[in-house]
Specification:
This protein folds into two domains: 206 residues, Up-down Bundle (Alpha-lytic protease prodomain-like), CATH 1.20.1510.10; 89 residues, 2-Layer Sandwich (Alpha-Beta Plaits). The chain contains nine helices and three strands; from the N terminus they run ααααααααββαβ. Helix 4 runs antiparallel to helix 7. The chain is elongated and about 85 Å long.
Length: 303
């Protein structure tokens, strides 16, 4: 399964997401057209957001895959965070539009027609989104892609949106309380609003050079502990992540009498061990004699 997911690149999956978004827009728009349900209208609006998000994510993943150049020596990996933030903004905009469209229907409910067909079309589109979201989420973990993760989470939100709409319309159909249609639409909007805020927060943390997750940090310290000796020690370990790429900077202290070749050989061994333990890691190790300490945060640097 892992090999299959690895073969499904972010670009391929986002292209599939664009195709599925177009299909679900057609299905949900048809469902709204034949029923007149504002709940199904909110569901269709969410699918338009899915399409715009998938297209933007595809562009950002393409940019992120570009190799380093003179202006971007560390690569373009952070482009994926713009995708996640943009998707969050679109979700919040969709939520606001849904609330606006549904608020007037609470006190002025409209009759609903052909709900059986409308709900059937909604369920088919939800099944497509649910399957794609499951594959994308698994692939996002394999590729460590926040753009894929954001799109997968958005699709999951869309599935829950459709489920809420189906339940609400089913209750309205059974009870005759047509105002439930609008209430369900507003409830859906509040749920996707929460998801949009979460995505924006996640992307902002990535743009501010957030440290690696605790599991990766533990692996790094485990590797370093394996090389430590009464003549070898490590300090000033600093990590950050940018999209799929991870970085660690540290100091390695060793006896001053070692030759440069011996010190460089040990550093190479440490770098290889770190990169093997933590996928996507790039290690930068500064060599220092055992009796030399590096000092940071000089007050002059903070002015």
């Amino acid at each position: 399964m892992r090999d299959v997911l690895a073969s499904l690149t972010p670009r391929r999956l986002l292209m599939a997401s664009v195709v599925v978004a177009v299909l679900t827009i057609a299905l949900k728009t048809m469902a709204w057209w034949i029923t007149g349900s504002v709940g199904l209208l909110s569901d269709a609006m969410e699918s338009f957001v899915n399409l715009a998000s998938a297209i933007f994510a595809l562009v950002m993943v393409t940019v992120a895959a570009q190799p380093p150049d003179a202006e971007h020596p560390y690569g373009h990996h952070k482009a994926e965070y713009f995708s996640s933030g943009f998707e969050g903004v679109l979700i919040i905009g969709a939520a606001a539009g849904i609330i606006w469209a549904a608020s007037g229907r609470i006190f002025d409910p409209q009759p609903l027609t052909q709900l059986d067909w409308g709900l059937g079309l909604s369920l088919v589109s939800s099944a497509l989104n649910g399957l794609l979201a499951w594959v994308m989420h698994r692939a996002a973990v394999a590729h460590r892609s926040i753009a894929l993760e954001a799109d997968a989470r958005h699709l999951v939100t869309d599935v829950w949106t459709s489920a809420g709409v189906v339940v609400g319309l089913g209750l309205a159909w059974a009870t005759g309380w047509l105002w439930l249609d609008a209430v369900v639409a507003i409830g859906v909007a509040l749920n996707i609003l929460r998801e949009g805020v979460s995505l924006i927060r996640r992307s902002s943390q990535g743009l501010m050079d957030e440290a690696l997750e605790p599991q990766a940090l533990a692996e790094i310290h485990k590797v370093l502990a394996g090389f430590e000796h009464h003549t070898i020690r490590f300090d000033h370990v600093t990590t950050r992540q940018a999209g799929q790429r991870r970085f660690v900077d540290l100091h390695m202290h060793m006896p001053a009498g070692w030759t440069l070749g011996r010190a460089a050989a040990l550093r190479t061994s440490v770098e290889q061990a770190l990169m093997s333990a933590v996928p996507g890691l790039r290690a930068t190790i500064q060599l220092l004699p055992s009796d030399v300490e590096a000092h940071f945060d000089d007050p002059r640097d903070l002015i």
